[in-house]
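hey can u check if this looks right to u? its 346 residues, i copy pasted from the old doc so theres a chance i mangled smth
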Amino acid sequence: MTAITTSRSRVRLFRDQHVTRLASILVVLLLFFALVRTENFFRLATWQSMAVQFPEFGLMALGVMLTMIIGGIDLSVVGIANMTAIGSATLMLSIAPTGSDSPQGYLALMAAIFFSLLVGALAGAFNGFLVAKVKIPAILVTLGTFELFTGIAVIISGGKPTSGLPPQYGEVMASRLFGVIPMPLIIFIVATMVIGVLMYKTAFGTKLYMLGSNETAAEFSGLKTTSLTIRTYMISGLLASVAGLVMLGNYNSAKADYGSTYTLLAILIVVLGGVNPNGGSGRLAGVILAVVVLQVLSSLLNTFPHISNFYRPLIWGGVLLLVIVVNQWDKRDHLARLFRWKGTTS
């Protein structure tokens, strides 16, 4: 029975137009990369560099995905990431002196991780409370809390980079499994697996789609929509705090304006991955593919020195609008085919 269910799930996955479309785009990008920048494409360092970079915004995208499935959105992920990163860095420096190689560094590391996850969860729960209890639209809540969390980060750091972390933190974040797989990629894989289990193997995941499809019907069916919304935003906050820890390790410092384009990038990834902005549908596989596609595209752009990084927001914004338009066309075509089918059967 399990084998039959698994095979059916695979068939549904490959029939998903967003997944197949993204897989096709990824193949084309990889072929183009291999032909145009052959030397860079076949270097292990190129792929390791990608594996270090994309977990930062990939983790944020996972949180945005969950909130969008329930019909909301989380624009505060970058604010949470930077606030928790600065708070964690400050905490580590208070426990272990700058440049200290003593065992205190590992104590500081553990304290920073616990602090970051706790603050991220509380920040996410605060978002969820305002959305579910106070009934403020999610886009307004998270836009406001983004500024709030960024302001807190600026106050803590004085607007300057927080650096000089204990070397133990950098060693852990720079470590590689089997000497090949970077730690940020391992963190992203573990987070993805946990989210996958929550979405597809627990009642929590089913309830997410029910809430996003029809909140009123979900309430009448007995769902505790307030609790579910708060928990969803709490998970998004947790994921953002993990992204903050990854950024802290990658840059060996924290600043309130790091990852300024990641909010747009996370939304682009989620929409490109096939999550309905109105809620109720979306696949984790599509979002993961979208993360990889955009990272490959970003790395490909990096190989062209005449294309400035200042063009990135323009490119991501244009791609986001294009994806939304294409998705709307697909939806209209699907409805038109459905009505034609009903007309022929009546």
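Residues 52-326 form a domain with the ABC transporter involved in vitamin B12 uptake, BtuC fold (CATH 1.10.3470).
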